[in-house]
Amino acid sequence: MRNLYYCLLIVLLGLGACTQTSDTDIIPHQNKIRVGLFDTNGDSPGCITDAYEALRIDSLMQPEIIGAATIMSDEILNFDLILFPGGSGKAQTIKLGQLGMQRVKELVTEQGMGVLGICAGSYVLSQTDGYPSLDLSGMQAIDIEHDHRGHGLVKFSLTEEGKKIFPELGGRDVWFSQYYEGPVLTLPKEPLFKAQSLSTMLSDVHTVEGTPANMTNNRPFITATEAGEGRVVTFVGHPENTPGMRWMIPRMVRWALKQPFISYTKQVVRPHIYEQEILYTKERLHQQDQYYEMLWGTPKQKVEAIHQLVMLSSWSAKKKVIGLLRDESQEVRLAAAMAIVELERTDAIEDLEVAALTEKDMKLKRQLEIQLALLKSMVARSL
After folding, report:
1. Which stretch is the leader sequence (predicted)?
2. Which whole-number Å values give the CA distances from 329 to 297, 313, 325, 372, in the listed order?
3. Which of 264, 292, 326 marks a domain boundary?
4. How far is 340 from 353, CA to CA, in rounded Å?
5. Domain of 259?
6. Is-above-0.85 flag for pTM?
7. Same domain for 243 and 102
8. What is the average pLDDT value for the chain, to the nearest integer?
9. Range with lowest mean pLDDT among 4-8, 144-148, 153-157, 292-296
């Protein structure tokens, strides 16, 4: 549990303890799985980074950021799957244009390419009247007028089919994932393709004033669809931004491409670290803002704020903490390093490398090197 992580923080701050870590297994392979992450010239770059880093858990995955020009050209034929990340669904489809949208449909249904959508990407892949969608997932988004409904760490359960794909999520009925105003999905009256739900969202998110209750709960949370020659996956939530759950993204890429599943290491498969739902009500948002302000306070306040933001599964903690590797306080620098590892921010490997390299205090240097080794172990190596 996360409390153990902060017990370790106290020990390291006081004693400079050393731990041993093991790298992820080296998995030899010949052919990469090329995944093109669709970018709309900077729209929600954090969502693109999160998806990119989640894919690096799998040694076969080769994530690359692509644009509409790539999709329209023959270059896209060198890719195995297109991933539409979180951000804005309409921003993504307007960037694709009508011909680009038609191109993606043909690539999936006629040429067997895989496609995966996360949050806004689920809107893109849906079959939703009045919305510029690709009509591929066999699911319809409803209550779009209340899209700004709230966010937080939400509960979900697996269907029987979902349990087959995610055997790591055994032993209990309720699991947790980040959610940020994802679509409310239901079956359309005349689905073009037959979708199956792999999991069900259990949380009732309506923390924004004016949004209806009992809308998000008991709805599909992860869907999988056979669409002609290709396969389609949608995530309503954000496992790619949920420590301990990010591996679910490469797992479903493998499903979409009919590739055999592989096991991921215990450094990234950590579903049991969550114990309860955390929805961002007005009170909790205010509390979060107070902790953000504390990041400019005394070293003691900064360490406490880092701790609380991680414990609260704060959406933006991932952006706030990295800069504290360059704080004047040794305690703050170590706390930031440990939080980066807990948050699985593998995009901060370079920051942590430089922090360890330039650290003058030898005891802290060794502690930073330990955290760096842990962070690097979350990225699969390949031959």
Report:
1. 1-22
2. 11, 24, 9, 19
3. 264
4. 12
5. 32-264
6. yes
7. yes
8. 93
9. 4-8
